[in-house]
Amino acid sequence: MADKKTIPYKIYLEESEMPTQWYNVRADMKNKPAPLLNPQTLKPMTAEELSQVFCEELVKQELDDTTPYFDIPEEILDFYKMYRPSPLVRAYCLEKELDTPAKIYYKFEGNNTSGSHKLNSAIAQAYYAKNQGLKGVTTETGAGQWGTALSMACAYLGLDCNVYMVKCSYEQKPFRREVMRTYGAKVTPSPSDTTKVGREILAKYPGTSGSLGCAISEAVEAATSKDGYRYVLGSVLTQVLLHQSIIGLETKAALDKYHITPDIIIGCAGGGSNLGGLISPFMGEKLRGEKDYRFIAVEPASCPSLTRGKFAYDYCDTGMVCPLAKMYTLGSGFIPSANHAGGLRYHGMSSVLSQLYDDGLMEAIAVEQTSVFEAATKFARIEGILPAPESSHAIKAAIDQALLCKETGEEKTIVFGLTGTGYFDMVAYGKYNDGAMSDYIPTDEDLAKGFAGLPHVE
Ligand SMILES: *Cc1c(COP(=O)(O)O)cnc(C)c1O
Predict the structure, then answer these.
(1) What would the pLDDT profile of 344-355 be if each residue is shown by its tens digit?
(2) Cα 343 to middle of ligand 1, angstroms
(3) CA 142, CA 387: separation in Å to the nearest integer?
(4) What percent of the chain has pLDDT over 90?
(5) What CA–CA distance (Å, rounded) separates 69 from 20?
(6) What average pLDDT does range 297-319 have in this prediction?
(7) Are the CB atoms for 4 and 92 separated by under 8 Å?
């Protein structure tokens, strides 16, 4: 293996080689993602309207689909340096185990206390809030990864952080909750009696264990009803993809250092932020006609937004308070069956990725939960890292592609995003170890119910 001598197990970047700008893939898209619409007037959201909910600088980033590069502020670069660059690992052991001619690399984003890539955008969003002179931010968290990342970022910058955590997670995931509180966040189980919308939901459904849609509505109300607060969101929005482009830019810099050109780039897709960030600079080359790559989005078969959803305007939240986005969606009322990849249970998908997929520039596949945990377990035993269930969707697809190469004898180079660690997901691993994991795939009738709730927008 000549490779072994020239390509290290881990490719790191020197501090001086780290990206200092984020890349905005929309600048190179011929078909731009459709604008966000005001849910009342159905007109494109103006900067002024968005600024009532979001920080001003983030609104500018959200609406800008022409500027290709944004300078990363010095303070954010300094924070990045505490846990970045993240390693790009050559999966030599996995290649050997699979006996494949394929070369497999993964970009590991789990090497920070929050345990996932979400910190990359959390620090950016907290920074712009602080810079605007705000007192704090509000958000929701389902599984808890985003809330954890945001509380770390807010603690670093001395910002107040209010997290509405879906009640059932609040009760079932006490460790995530306590990490957030340790970083100084105020964590409120949602629905709560601290907001009007929360009180209404509690009156209507006493004893409810909450939902992400409801927690979003509470967090937005908490931000807009108090001076000095804004709402922040950890995925789906184009500003989040912009911040997450740091993943792809580092990956590209590391590969370029060793003159490696990937053939296939794979990532799991929930709201699309890690995948969008990973593929952005490569997609830019493809859009400009400089290079060609295959991009594969991997989603759970229980929540198949890209592979079985509709490309339409839809509400971003169940409470229908947020702007409408044009995206691949299962309908904001779609409730996926219990699934252990909490970060992949969103009904919609980033409008940027949706447009790229609709234009045939990216592929998508859906995989079943049991096969995902099988891949996760194999990966943990061979490569040493205990992966998050979300990330394991990408592992599953990468292994399948490598096995295809074994059949055809092709020496393809595969890169996938390993978004996080699975330490807080041991209940899910326990289910798998006990053989008690189920694979519910929604029927067409189930999906029809979600589609029936799509708003009528021309
Ligand atoms: C949130 C999360 C995801 C999915 O979110 P995207 O916005 O689609 O990237 C994937 N992996 C991990 C570990 C997460 O925490």
Answers:
(1) 888 999 999 999
(2) 5
(3) 19
(4) 87
(5) 10
(6) 93
(7) yes
Q: What is the mean pLDDT of the chain?
A: 95
What's the confidence (pLDDT) of residue 143?
A: 85
Give residue 390's pLDDT. 96
126 pLDDT higher than 50: yes
* Token pair for 137: 């931010």
What is the chain's length? 458
- Please report, for residues 105, 126, 162, 164, 263, the alpha-carbon distance to residue 193 in angstroms, rounded to integers and kept in the order given: 48, 26, 14, 12, 52
The rounded distance, in Å, linking the Cα atoms of 111 and 92 is 20
* 116 Cα nearest atom in ligand 1: 13
d(CA 372, CA 374): 5
pLDDT at 5 over 80: no
Residue nearest to atom 13 of ligand 1 (CA): 420
Pocket test for ligand 1, best of 169, 238, 274, 340 (most atoms within 8 A of CB): 274
DSSP code string of 365-397: EEE-HHHHHHHHHHHHHHH---B-HHHHHHHHH
DSSP 110-169: --STT-BTTHHHHHHHHHHHHHTT-SEEEEEESSSHHHHHHHHHHHHHT-EEEEEEEHHH
Residues 6+ apart with CB under 8 A from 438: 337, 338, 369
- Provide the residue type at 266 as one letter: I
Q: How confident is the model at residue 316 (pLDDT cuts 50, 70, 90)?
A: confident
Q: Are 287 and 356 in contact (CB under 8 A)?
A: no
Q: Which residues approach ligand 1 with their CB closer than 6 A? A: 116, 118, 145, 235, 268-274, 343-344, 388, 390-391, 419-420
Q: Please provide the distance, in angstroms rounded to a whole number, between the alpha carbons at the two ends of the chain.
A: 57
Domain 3-20+72-115+238-451 - what CATH class?
Answer: alpha beta
Q: Which amino acid is at 38?
A: N
Cα separation, 116 vs 200, in Å, equals 34
Q: Which atom of ligand 1 is nearest to the CA of 270?
A: 8
Rg (alpha carbons) of the chain, rounded to whole number: 21
Per-residue DSSP letter, 420 = B
